[in-house]
Amino acid sequence: MADDGERREYRMEELAEKAGITVRTLRFYRERKLIQPPRREGRIAWYDDTHLARLRTISALLERGHTLSGIAELAEAFDHGRDVRDLLGLGAPTEEIPVRLTPEALADVFGAEATPENLAAALDLGYLGTDGGEIVHISRRLLDVSAALVREGIPLGDVLAAGRRVREHAEALAEVFTDLVAAQDRPPEDVRRLRPLAKSVVEAELSLALDRRLLGREQRT
Which of 51, 130, 176, 216 could tie 47 with a disulfide, CB 3.0–4.6 Å? Predict the structure, then answer.
């Protein structure tokens, strides 16, 4: 085993033993591109803890009923996912709390709805990003609400499609508020200081709009 700072490296036999699989299975996963290629040093292949984490994830997802083909699609999606720092912006102010998740944790949250297609859509929307070998959801609140809607029987694909529409309207609302502050020649930091007022206006208007929608539906029935 080689040592590169805090990163541990393993030969193929060592990695297979730690992951609880056979060397033959490890070779099969590598051929299916379920794990990244190892670092080569002459004829020796060195694997590290990111390979071990991926192998344990594969085992966990298989136990939850996912197929190898589906896992391969998930692995490809996450390997090409956007870095969470690009999604959140380095040092950008946020009231949202990012959540670090493993693929099997996502599978536990969304069950059968955690399909490669839905997770790829979440990556494209920017709900999910990557940080090294980890998956990060950009907002605990959005994750909890999405999971609650799925538990209510709404397909995750529909939830994500609605999230994309809400994102467009939210961007427009944010522009209205920032333009309002800027028009008064207020300093940029006032946007952050006054943002609770903007959120209150949006929450009240949404509440009133839902009232009107519900009343309209009741009158039609």
Answer: 51
Bridge pairing between strands 44-48 and 7-10: antiparallel
3 state DSSP class of 6: coil
pTM more than 0.85: no
The residues facing 135 across adjacent strands are 101, 130
Task: Kindly list the averaged pLDDT for each block of 10 residues, start to end, along the chain of length 221.
Answer: 63 94 93 89 90 86 82 76 69 79 83 83 88 82 96 96 96 94 88 92 96 85 71
Strands 99-101 and 39-41: unpaired
How far from 73 is each of 69, 141, 213, CA to CA, in Å? 6, 27, 40
| Residue in this structure with the two tokens 């946020």, named with its chain if needed | 94
> Two tokens at 57?
């994830």
